[in-house]
Design a protein that fits this description.
By secondary structure, the protein is α+β, with helices and mostly antiparallel strands. The chain has 3 domains: 141 residues, MutS, DNA mismatch repair protein, domain I; 65 residues, 5' to 3' exonuclease, C-terminal subdomain (DNA polymerase, domain 1, Orthogonal Bundle), CATH 1.10.150.20; 147 residues, DNA polymerase, Y-family, little finger domain (Dna Ligase, domain 1). Helix content is 37%, strand content 18%. A hairpin with an 8-residue loop joins β2 and β3. The termini are far apart.
């Protein structure tokens, strides 16, 4: 261990042991695990959208980047295998990964579909090994059971663990004990910190702060005055003092709920665009009701084939979770923003001003009998769709959204084609179909 005593941040090894598990090119890795012939080949998902949603590391090494248009990606990498996204399969792999992690510790935060934090503090006696040893076991089990590659970072806080997991991707592992913080952080630029955006990095640079060590060697007052509460919290986190606790509960609070859908080919047919928009609205309202929430504000938008967007926001005079309460407003927004001179490739709906279900914001002029009837209709639709599959029963205007149109990008995920006995296009078991030929 080098460095003067003054530069040492802490002598504690692991007062807390937090692991960050991060899947490498998750969507592409799931496709390669499901179909082993794709291993070591450049793979990209997102065929249905016309852009790269996720690229395998073989594709990344060839220059393919997320968000790149598919024809550009194909020009850069002629051997690129392009697949439609299979979010159902990806969510199954995600759930199973979280289940594996929970075998090692009950304290797990599902940070995103392909990331998790895990608190290993106090578990060394159970597993008869060090914290890095436990983290390596988690990594090994995920790779063995799911055949996907993950990178793992281990340190004293969530912020430090996330920095570590990004260091040696793909298939990386890094453990950072407290007594090595000063040596490690002196080489880490501030843009590597989750929470420091481009503007913050520019501001810190102008203050002479170029590395994470530069930042944490400044007094706490400097961090708070310059960056406020978040700046102070990150100052503590980067010094090894845990501020951000693991959030183990399922997400129940939402500031907004959004649903969007890209469709191919792009169209200037108003009935088709309206059908897609109403389908977005149905999906958003289904999520509202599933979480026992209501909304009062709706934003509807359209994305043209040149990727420009137009949209409007409107407010309902009360909170609701019934699709029928928003349908007229949504159709009215469409009438104002739709221009038949343009081709449209995507629609989207955002519901906001969200409150818990049951909050009564009705005015004296509302018809309580009509409100109750619409609410009962919504509950009946949810019961039918729960039994027979999402969108089995839907608003007539959205029927066109369920009709497949032949197009070079109209492929559907294989899991929706390879059905087991008793399965339907709308309702399937949570089992990924493997192609092990």
């Amino acid at each position: 261990m080098s460095g003067s005593i003054d530069s040492i941040i802490t002598l504690s090894s692991y007062p807390r042991a937090i692991a960050h598990i991060d899947c490498d090119a998750f969507f592409a890795s799931c496709e390669q695990a499901r179909e082993p012939r794709l291993k070591r080949l450049p793979v990209a998902t997102g065929k249905e959208r016309g852009i790269v949603s996720c690229a395998s590391y073989e594709a990344k090494n060839a220059g393919v980047k997320r968000g790149m248009r598919l024809f550009e990606a194909k020009q850069i990498c002629p051997t690129l295998v392009i697949l439609p996204s299979d979010y159902e399969t990806y969510s199954i792999y995600s759930e199973r990964m979280f289940d594996i992690i929970r075998r090692f510790s009950p304290s797990v935060e599902e940070f995103s579909i392909d990331e998790a934090f895990c608190d290993l503090t106090g578990l060394r006696r159970i597993y008869r090994t060090s914290y890095p040893g436990i983290a390596k076991k988690i990594k090994s089990e995920i790779e063995k059971e799911l055949d996907i590659i993950v990178s793992v970072g281990l340190s004293l806080t969530k912020t430090l663990a996330k920095i570590c997991s990004k260091q040696n991707k793909p298939n990386g592992f890094m453990a950072l004990p407290g007594y090595c913080l000063h040596e490690f952080l002196k080489n880490i630029p501030t843009e590597k910190v989750c929470g420091f955006g481009p503007n913050t990095v520019e501001l810190l640079d102008k203050c002479g702060v170029k590395t994470v060590l530069d930042y944490i060697k400044r007094p706490a007052d400097f961090a708070q005055k310059l960056l406020g509460k978040i700046g102070l919290e990150l100052w503590h986190e980067l010094r090894g003092k845990a501020v951000y606790k693991l959030c183990q509960e399922k997400k129940e609070k939402y500031l907004s709920i959004s649903k969007s859908k890209t469709f191919m080919p792009a169209s200037k047919e108003k009935s088709l665009v309206k059908g897609q928009l109403i389908r977005n609205l149905e999906s958003a309202c289904i999520k509202l009701r599933r979480h026992h929430l209501s909304a009062a504000v709706i934003t509807a938008y359209l994305r043209r084939s040149d990727f420009r967007e137009c949209g409007l926001k409107a407010k309902l005079n009360r909170h609701s979770s019934s699709t029928l309460d928003f349908t007229g407003i949504c159709a009215g927004i469409l009438d104002k923003i739709f221009d038949p001179a343009f081709l449209y490739r995507a629609t989207g709906v955002i519901l906001s001003d969200i409150v818990a279900e049951g909050v009564d914001s009705r005015t004296l002029f509302e018809d309580p009998l009509r409100i109750e009837k619409i609410s009962r209709v919504s509950r009946a639709i949810d019961e039918i769709n729960e039994k027979f599959g999402k969108h089995t029963m839907h608003i007539a205007a959205s029927n066109i959204a369920g009709v497949r149109r032949d197009h070079s990008r109209s492929d559907i995920a294989r899991r929706k084609q390879d059905l087991l006995k008793g399965e339907t296009f709308r309702r399937r078991l949570k089992i990924p179909m493997l192609n092990l030929e």
